[in-house]
Amino acid sequence: MSKLKAVVIGCGAIGTRAHIPYLSQHSKVNVVAACDIDENACKKAKELNVPKIYQDWEKMLDIEKPDIVSVCTPNYLHKSMVIGAASRGIHVLCEKPMATTLADAKEMAEVVKKNDVKCMVGFTHRFMQENIKLKSIVDSGEIGTPFFSQVRFAHAGPENGWSDKDWWFKKAESGGGSLVDMAVHAIDITHWIMGPTRSVNARVATLIKKIEVDDNSCLILQNDKGMSIVNTSWSSPVGINGILVVGTKGAIERPYGEPMRICKGLTLADGTNKMEWQIVEMENIIDGYKAEFNAWIEYVIDDKKTVPTVTDGIAAQAVIEAAYKSSANAIMI
Ligand SMILES: NC(=O)c1ccc[n+]([C@@H]2O[C@H](COP(=O)([O-])OP(=O)(O)OC[C@H]3O[C@@H](n4cnc5c(N)ncnc54)[C@H](O)[C@@H]3O)[C@@H](O)[C@H]2O)c1
Among the four residues 8, 123, 164, 198, which has the most C-beta atoms within 10 Å? Predict the structure, then answer.
């Protein structure tokens, strides 16, 4: 089989840290071109040995006629680029969030369906090996029936060590702040483990930074399998990140950067507290990005493979939109 011809739109942080390098090292992919409107970003792509660099993404698609395209641009551009690629019959890996509004995400999904192309949404956390292990433990019934989860994703903000651009802080370009940027991952992980969201209660606020979008969010969700909390922050110097799932026979805790552990035992109302913690050993851990790009290519090649798609992108977008509404209209008691 000849290699898939790949192009990347957007050579900023995620384009040059993940898409170009991981697609380039894949044995079934040839990265033929990349595109950016920023000279420095183009330079970075060149340094990664991308043979052709464009400034106009539509021109790149029309000339290169790739099999697959990565959309790695600011959130407000995902819609036109995914629609532009899908209409040309090109499979798309769209970075998260899928769009800046639920209506746009639905419109994109329609075009993807109509043109019979594949579209994966970049829910990177699903490909982290520890998260896959956590899900398999929960699904095995080892902690009993899960009824509660908590996902907290936090850091000091995208301007600290990630991206040098300021679109993140402009509502019209990002769609929102930490809720859009980070809760979208946390919501997707929650859906993956606890099932779809049935209701949303939220506080979304700009607590610390002088920005027009939110820097913190706290959501209480009712999911098919129980209730959950999603908490995000762009103002946490100590970005304690992780996942907790509690079931009827135990709990599993997955602090990012630390060993995952299962808790069993008994805690009674009289103060009896016998908890036993067991570290979950991880073997043959492969890098989450590598797993993500492997899954994307397998999905393009093999119809039986599954990955997060527009359905998951829309589900997360619906929760984001509901969270903003809930926060704006909530009655505080
Ligand atoms: N999956 C993940 O974990 C993850 C992590 C970080 C970012 N992201 C997502 O990836 C996307 C990009 O984020 P980033 O961190 O790379 O941002 P970034 O600002 O570093 O990069 C975006 C790039 O897009 C370029 N661009 C803007 N308009 C363009 C156009 N018309 N044509 C071509 N290029 C254009 C910019 O010049 C910039 O270089 C965002 O949607 C973000 O949410 C996903």
Answer: 8
Average pLDDT over residues 105-111: 98
122 lines ligand 1 (CB under 6 A): yes
* Residue bearing the CA closest to ligand 1, atom 21: 12
Nearest atom within ligand 1 for CA of residue 123: 1
DSSP letters, 2-36, are PPEEEEEE--SHHIIIIIHHHHHT-TTEEEEEEE-
In this structure, the number of other CB atoms found within 10 A of the CB of residue 275 comes to: 11
A 10 A CB-CB count for 270 gives 6
Q: Which residue's C-alpha comes closest to atom 15 of ligand 1?
A: 13
Fold for 125-280+317-329, please state it: Dihydrodipicolinate Reductase; domain 2 (3.30.360)
Task: Check pocket membership of 124 for ligand 1, CB cut-off 6 A.
Answer: yes
CA 61 to chain centre: 25
CATH of domain 4-124+290-308: 3.40.50.720
pLDDT digits (tens, 9 = 90+) for 124-147: 999 999 999 999 999 999 999 999
pLDDT digit string, tens, across residues 279-325: 999 987 899 999 999 999 999 999 888 999 999 999 999 999 999 99
